[in-house]
Design brief:
The chain is α/β, with parallel strands linked by helices. It has ten helices and eleven strands.
Length: about 290
């Protein structure tokens, strides 16, 4: 039977640790870290996520700014705002909340962000530094997963890690991080995706299974071996007659089934999700202290 990896608890621990550090910075008259976010349009999930970031900043003593732009904002107008933040000396790090409206090329925006302020870790320069195991900002969700594995003392060295999903936000960076020569790493990594034939053959070999596919309850008990460590990144809202709200959140893993075979497992919600904000706050603190870009 699995031990539940409690992302909410670890996220709160990290935020408490940052709060103490920010308190020391204040006492010593140092610069308070400042995180900004640009939100274009009214996407519901984005609104919720950004509101949680603002709340977390308040809790730990960061300064925060939320820049709202209308749905019909042009790409050039957004680029102008990005350039403004690049040159704002008070802002240590910022994010442009994705997804963006269809008239805006997301990659153009990501590449316009100053790498030293790219606390989401999406700029090609930061992705390259991550691949070379150089100091950088690791994307928030992968960084959160690394934190969970480390704080639960899960051994990764010499293990076989199977990653399901190859997105630039989770799957691809996870495959790089789990293979690198570091405390959480040194795995033999198999990166699988929607075009992988006989996926079950690969997942059955996993000592550590990281699933970021976006398909609810895709991984079932017959796809994993006993003792596997399961990190479920997926979160999909589905209709439910059993809840007051009329919907529930499901991960990519059929939790009740796989729970019986796993040694560790992340729940949905309450697993990986809360760690993304904690990771973003760590990256912003690094940015304010000039730990990555001197």
């Amino acid at each position: 039977m699995a031990e539940i990896i409690d992302g909410k608890k670890i996220s709160n621990q990290i935020q408490d640790e940052i709060l103490l550090e920010v308190s020391d910075i204040k006492k010593n008259g140092g610069k308070i870290p400042h995180l900004a976010a640009i939100l274009v349009g009214n996407d519901g999930a984005s609104e919720t996520y950004v509101a949680a970031k603002v709340k977390a900043c308040e809790k730990i003593g960061f300064n925060s700014s939320l820049i709202r732009l209308p749905e019909n904002t042009s790409e050039q107008e957004l680029l102008n705002k990005v350039n403004e933040l690049n040159n704002d000396k008070d802002v240590d790090g910022y994010i442009v909340q994705l997804p963006l409206p269809k008239n805006i090329n997301e990659q153009n925006i990501i590449e316009a962000i100053a790498p030293e302020k790219d606390v989401d870790g999406f700029h090609p320069q930061n992705v390259g530094r991550m691949a070379l195991n150089l100091p950088t900002y690791i994307p928030a969700t992968p960084f959160g997963i690394i934190q969970l594995l480390e704080r639960y003392n899960i051994e990764t060295s010499g293990k076989h890690c199977v990653v399901v999903g190859r997105s630039n936000i989770v799957g691809s960076p996870m495959s790089i991080l789990m293979a690198r020569n570091s405390k959480i790493g040194n795995c033999t990594v198999t990166l699988t995706h929607s075009k992988t034939p006989n996926l079950k053959e690969h997942t059955l070999k996993a000592d550590i299974l990281i699933v970021a596919l976006g398909k609810p309850e895709f991984v079932t008990a017959d796809m994993v071996k006993n003792g596997v460590v399961v990190i479920d990144v997926g979160i999909t809202r589905v209709k439910s007659e059993q809840t007051k709200s009329g919907f529930k959140l499901l991960g990519d893993v059929k939790y009740d089934e796989v729970f019986a075979k796993a040694s560790f497992i992340t729940p949905v919600p309450g697993g990986v999700g809360p760690m993304t904000i904690a990771s973003l706050l760590i990256n912003t603190l690094k940015a304010s202290k000039k730990e990555v870009y001197k």
